[in-house]
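Hey, sorry to bother you again with one of my protein questions. I've been staring at a protein lately and its backbone has me curious. I owe you a coffee for this, so here goes:
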Amino acid sequence: MAASMMQCEFTLLSSFPVPETTDCPTIVKQFLQGDYEDILESSECAKKLLSHQNAENASISDLCKFIKTNVETLMLDGAENTDCRDLSVLTVAASCLQLFVQNNWLGPPTTKSPIEFLQNKFHSKLKELNVEAQNELSADGESVYSQSRHLLYLYIARIILLECHSFFTESKTWDWWLMRCLLTQQTLLSDRSPTLKATVMELMDKCNMLCYSTQLL
């Protein structure tokens, strides 16, 4: 039984397992099994987003710009099915978010560093990337908790979900995942961020509208 992209998205969001006969993409089934590292290591989408280097991004040392450039390149690839592409990108972002939550709250801690899933040129720049992540995840003068384990996972999730949001307006659950990401970011700040609160409240309104509209389908 083939599952629609909308069904796959909502399944991803709820994390409820699907029947083996359901024709969901492999990357979604991996996510539902909690194989988040496998997604970042083996999926073509993750490689294109996190480690692919081309003429456009070869000189970029900023991780945010690097990933955004790769997203733009991916969006220009007319050979890919749009729905499958968007779902795969969302799953990669969600996997990064889940890995951060797993390492800092739910357990068990993972053995691999997020740096291992990035382009080789970043492998010797863990300190610089962590500084970049801490700076970008700070908000309204409030710093993030510096002892967070594998902060890069949250940063990568935020880059994809927030900075690349405009590329994925057709996704039905993107705002849900972005809201989860920003709420996680808020928990790391030393005090409440009015900017994050305003963004989360706006996203919440959109999510409520989505819930209402899907009930009418």
About this structure: Residues 136 and 155 are 8 Å apart (CA to CA). The chain has one domain: 5-215.
